[in-house]
Structure formats: C-alpha cells, structure tokens
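Database export, one record per block. Field names are fixed; values are copied verbatim from the stored entry.
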Amino acid sequence: MTCPEVWNKIASVASGATETSFEEESMRRLTMFLLCLAVIFTLMAGACAPKKPPLGSEQNPIVMVFVPSGESEEIKRGGEKLAELLSQKLGLKVKMNMASSSAAAVEAMGAGQAHIGWLNTLSYLLAHEKYGVDVILVTVRFGQTYYTGQIIVRADSGIKSIADLKGKVMCWVDPLSTSGYLMPRILLKANGIDPDKDFAKTVNAGSHPNVVKAVYNKDCDAGATYVDARGVVEKDLPDVKEKVIQLAFTAKIPNDNVSVVKDLPADLREKIKKALLEIAQSEEGAQALKTVYQIEGLQEAQDSFYDEFRAQLSASGYKIEDLVKR
C-alpha cells in the first residue's frame, strides 16, 4: 500500500467509525476503531518511511575497501584512482575506503559498510566463512597468482638459521596477514620454534614496509613479510637489501584478491568483475594497480582457488573456525 493509499484508508475508517461510535455510544466499537487506527498507522509508517537511495548513487555509493599492507599514502592514491576508473566504467558512484586493519576490512564487509574488498588470503577465508563474502578476481604478480612469505634479519645480526631466532625480538605484520603472520608461524613451528613462547618479545608493526624498517633500524631482530617487501622501502633505504637479508621462506600462498559481499546483485557483481578486468588492461588502470599493491594484473577466480591452501592449513593443524570464533 502506498503512502497516499494509507492516508485515504485512515480518513475512511476514522470517518465511519467515529460516526458510528458516537451514535451507538458503544465502547466495543470505539475499541475496534482505535485498534484499526493502530494497525493503519503501523502500515503507514512502513509505506511512508524514506527509501534508501539505490546502490551506486551519490547518497549511497559502492564502497571499495583496502587494507594498509603497504605504504598507506600509495595505497590511498592508487585506490582512489581505481575507484574513479570503476565509477566511469559502471556509470555509478564508487568510493574508496582505507581500513585500519585486515580485520576492520572484513568486519566492514560483514556489516554492509563496504561492498568490494581487496583482501589477503587469510582475510578472505575468514570473510567467506563468517559473512559469505565471495572472490571474483585474484591478483597477478611476476606472472603468478601465488607468492611466498619470508623471514628477514639484519645481515650483521649473527642469525644464520631459524633455530637462532629463539630468544629474539620478532616483528609481525598483522594477525590476519597470511605472509606476515600465519605462514611464518607454521614455518617456525615446523622448525622447532614456538612463536608464542620462544621469542623474547613480539611486535605487530601493522604493515610489511613497517616490518622491514623495524628490522633495518634494529627495533626487531627478525620480521615476517611477503617476498620481497624490501623493495617497497628501497627508495627511502637504498641499501636495505644489503643490510636486511632473507633467512627463510614459507610455502606457496594464493595471492590477494578482489571480493564482493554476499548480497551484491548478480548483475552488478558481473559488471564490476568485467570493468576491473578492463581497467587492468588500460594504461591508467595498470599504473593504479601497481601503485596500490604492486599488482601486475587480474584474473577471474572462484572460491575453489583456495581449496589447496585450506588443505595446507588443515595439515598444519590450523583451523579457520578458530579465527571465526575470535
């Protein structure tokens, strides 16, 4: 029932019922009249409530969320350009948002505050399990859709093996970082180091560049990042690859991806996927992808792309359900 129809109904009921109630002076009819009014006002509230603007309008933009896994200013600059290019392709308003952490990006998608997410592997698995978020594209770097993590140390630290890390200060990226937390922990455990007990201290640096800088500046004895995060800070620290060396490498990890929320309309989902693939082929888009996360390209992907990695986690004793509960 539309808002005008509801008002007409109220007028009709009020007129007839009021006249009858006064004529017959009947409490029963008055009661019935008041009940009718209550029902009609309830219907009116729903019919006349302001409708939410359509998704993609200026008042209700499509929100694309990024995580601070690299240099925040670079990610913001590249992300804003990607949002601009996607807006042009779709003919809809797309807004870029920088989350404070991987967990914040996952929760933003779960709460409907973001519709598209650029998520790392672990964040995606959590978002998929917890909120039904689904992958549409996987990123490509060095011609591959997977990468590895690394443990780095100062060249002059005297640390020659994983065993030498016992009692040292360890830098992590973020508890939801696959290469900067999860996979290195599995690697350490496989080599006899308990990451929860065997370090003198652990530090969550918040991003891969921050971990590299912390090791370079001797704030941490060792750190975990993706291969090769040292290149991101090479502009500011030209000798970083001489001062900071790679000690060990993790198993293969699926690349980060582009995911969408569960309730995104199927036609819009396909349009976003197609538009981003086209953007990746353009000069402007390629530069924006490189700026945001050093991405060379995008490929279509489905959730099954992560099945092998899930099997790796299961074999190591790690359960994504435990993360979901937390």
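Remark 1: Residues 20 and 26 are 8 Å apart (CA to CA).
Remark 2: Residues 3-24 form the longest helix (22 residues).
End of record.
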